[in-house]
Structures are given as C-alpha cells and as structure tokens.
Amino acid sequence: MHIAVIGTGYVGLVSGAGMADFGMNVVCVDIDEEKITKLKAGEIPFYEPGLKELVAKNVKAGRLSFTTDLAEAVKRTLVIFICVGTPPAPDGSADLSAVKSVALSLAETIDEYKVIVTKSTVPVGTNRWIKQLIDENKKNDVKVDVISNPEFLREGCAIEDFMRPDRVVIGGESDHAIAIIKDIYRPLYLAETPFVITDLETAEMIKYASNAFLATKISFINEVATLCDKVGADVITVAKAMGLDPRIGPRFLNPGPGFGGSCFPKDVRALAYLGKQNNHPMHILEAVLTVNERQREVTVQKVKQICGDLPGKTIAVLGLAFKPNTSDVRESPALDIVERLIAEGAKVQAYDPIAEEEFKKAKPELPVKYATDPYEAADGAHCLLILTEWNEFRYLDLEKIKNLMAEPAIVDARNIYEPARMQKLGFKYTGMGRGNFA
Ligand code: NAD
C-alpha cells in the first residue's frame, strides 16, 4: 500500500512514521521547505519522545520519505491523508485555508481513483465540502472518495497513542473506501482496538465532542478547586473520591493554570462557533472557555497573595510548555501568565527543559531571563511558580532551592508537591484547591 501524508506536524509525522512502521510505503509532504530539509537530514522539527528513532528506522527500511512535491507524492499513492493545521480564526471558527489549498492541489493532480482521508480536526460538514471542492475542480472524471478519520493522539505520548489508540473512528459513505482504511489499520484491528465505523458528520462530531468534554472536565475541576481554596476543602481528595464513581472516572480531574495546547482551546471555540452558526448556543462550552481564561488570573493572583505586589519582585517560572514532554507552547498558560506577571512589574526567570526556544519564538518581546536549570531560575527569586509538571520538577533539591531564593515561597499550579511537607520544609506554599493549605 502506498500512502501520502500531507502536513508533517505532530499528527502527520507521527501518523506517517506509524503507518510506515505498520509496513506501508509512506511519503510525507509539507509546504515548509525548511521542515522537509530537516526531515531529510534526520532531524525532527519538534520534540516528541521516540519519534526521531521511529522516523530513522522507517527511513532506513526504505518505507518513509519526505518531499515538498505534492503532485509527485500523490501520483504513486492510493490513499492520501490530510494532516495540515486547522488553527483558530479570530471569530473562533476553524481556519480551513490549508485544508482548502490541499484539496485544490489534489484536484489539479489526481488522475486515478484516490481515497482522501482527513485526519485534521475539521468542523462538521468539512469532508463533504472537500469532496465537492475536488469534484468541481478536478480535470477529469476519476472518482474520489472522502473519509473522515479524526486523530486522538496526545503530544508527549503521540507514538504510543497512535500505535495503541482507545478507538479508531472511520466516517464515510463508500464501503470500498472504508474497507481500504480499515486495511491500513489492520495491525490495530488484530490488537482488538475498537473501531467506530460511521458517517462523515458523526465522525467529525466525535472528535469535537471528545475534546470539548475533556476540556469541560478540566474547567469543572478548576472551578471546584478555586472554591475549595475559599471554603477550606482539599480538591485532591475531592477529585479522588469523585473519580471512584465509575460514571465520573478519575482521569482529567487535576486542577491547574487552565488548559492550553493546539487542540482544546481551538476545538472548544470551533464547536461553540458551530453551535452559534446553527442557532444552538453551546452554553456549557462558553462557560468552559470563560473558566479557563479566569484560571490564568487565579494563578497570577496566587503569586500576588504569596509575595505581595509584583514591582521589584523576581518570579521563577518552572515550565513553559503547555504540558510535559512536548516543546509545544501553543496557547500554553505560561504565555499569558508570564506576560501578566511582567506587565504587573515582576521580573521573570524561567526554565523549561525543552520548550524555551518555542516560547522565545512565540513571545520574543518579553524580557524573560532564561535559566539553564531550575536552580538558576530560583536564584534570588521571591516566588517559585510551577506551571508545567515536568517529571524533573517533582524531585527538586528543595533545601537548595530554599537557600537560593530571596523568599522561600512556592505557587504550585500543578499540585506536584504535598502542602504539609512544603510547610514543614519552611516554604510559604500554595497549590491549586488545597483548601486549608492554600
Ligand atoms: P502542525 O501545525 O504541527 O502541523 C501542520 C503542518 O501542515 C505544518 O508542518 C505545515 O507546514 C503543514 N501545511 C500547512 N499547509 C500545508 C499545505 N497546503 N500543504 C502541505 N503542508 C501544509 O499541526 P498538528 O498539531 O499536527 O495538527 C494538525 C491537525 O491535527 C489539526 O487539525 C489539529 O487540530 C489536529 N490534531 C492535532 C493533535 C495534536 O496533538 N497536535 C491531535 C489530534 C488532532
């Protein structure tokens, strides 16, 4: 089976390398020449654990290659996966310009039967629109089938998620095309991965509803956490006990500085937009976004509570990525929070094991002093603010940190430390929703 994957970001590159590892011949296409040059040289343009090795192994085996030439790549392939970005437009809708551009390029080049598979997260109706665009613009009467195959991988454990997904969703109208895509995922089928075979619209909705529900869980527990702080309850025990009810489940009930990343914020906004467009406002989702925005402010307020007014204060920020094990800072809470701390007069010394360069690119104007380790960041600081739960922050030498800081104060926005222990060590400490310890 020959496959083309268009877009070599997190989804495209992981899926392309994953399918090559299943034994298929995969050519990955991108318009970004720099990215393709790097990939050809064996470099991965972003950090994802295990990806470099997986790519190298499959390139060496002759099953994975890279190009900027879409026409050439598509010529030899039966199945084409669209994995380009669908970033948020200013009005909250999904910006489909990259998807449209790919569809029009495909219409130009296709001269035999193809299955076009959309892995990008796209609003309900988009796959039908892609088919229409291609049918209206193609230069011949060859048949094209369109399949919706949303991707659920998580950055930081993307390979594991691709290789062992909770489910594979395949939406389409052509039994023939569905059978071809099922065949690609045959290795997973054998591992008894649940497959959901459905229509285009339902497949598209599954992706948005899933992300919106996960984001709802986060905003819910964040809102409960802030109330816990006010009334003296401990959210960790609350969440644990809630999670023991199998109707609720224990996962995704960890309070923090609010969700970020390239998916949750944009997908919640896009689903809310779809609701508005269809005269059906999604009240819960509007609240999820409002709470998420407020959570940044809650975090800044905690810093101010613990170390007073910010002018003249130095804040050590640990973690810039939106979550551990990724270099991605898209919509990371750190972007907002660091900006606000600086705007209110604080100096910021920041450390992230991987995401520093991406953060600099996203906020070149911010006068952040970047440290090479957590201890350098803590040196002379009046407050240590933990924004990302990188494993290396869980085992800091806290005596050393205390001695380096101007004031021993910690705002643990990821609840990675136990309040009682921190107080015993002599820190002024506040977590998120730790009640009487707040
Ligand atoms: P990304 O921004 O990392 O990568 C997108 C790539 O597409 C870029 O390399 C870009 O150069 C390329 N591209 C843009 N226009 C192109 C064109 N016309 N031709 C060829 N290449 C083009 O994006 P991503 O994070 O991989 O996300 C891709 C899609 O998958 C989005 O819709 C996203 O919502 C969805 N998704 C992302 C994740 C995730 O964790 N990142 C998970 C599931 C689904």
TrEMBL record:
Enzyme Commission number, as recorded: 1.1.1.22
Residues binding substrate, per UniProt: F152, L153, R154, E155, K207, F252, L253, N254, P255, G256, G260, K323
Domain of life: Bacteria
Residue ranges annotated for the UDP-glucose/GDP-mannose dehydrogenase C-terminal domain, each copy included: 316-419
Pfam families named among the record's database cross-references: UDPG_MGDP_dh, UDPG_MGDP_dh_C, UDPG_MGDP_dh_N
Residues annotated to bind NAD(+): D30, K35, T86, T121, E155, K266, R330
GO biological process, any: UDP-glucuronate biosynthetic process
Leading EC class: oxidoreductase
InterPro entries for the chain: 6-PGluconate_DH-like_C_sf, NAD(P)-bd_dom_sf, UDP-Glc/GDP-Man, UDP-Glc/GDP-Man_DH_C, UDP-Glc/GDP-Man_DH_C_sf, UDP-Glc/GDP-Man_DH_dimer, UDP-Glc/GDP-Man_DH_N, UDPglc_DH_bac
Organism of provenance: Thermodesulfatator indicus (strain DSM 15286 / JCM 11887 / CIR29812)
Protein name per UniProt: UDP-glucose 6-dehydrogenase
Lineage: Bacteria, Pseudomonadati, Thermodesulfobacteriota, Thermodesulfobacteria, Thermodesulfobacteriales
Active site: residue positions: C263
Reaction equation(s) it catalyzes: UDP-alpha-D-glucose + 2 NAD(+) + H2O = UDP-alpha-D-glucuronate + 2 NADH + 3 H(+)
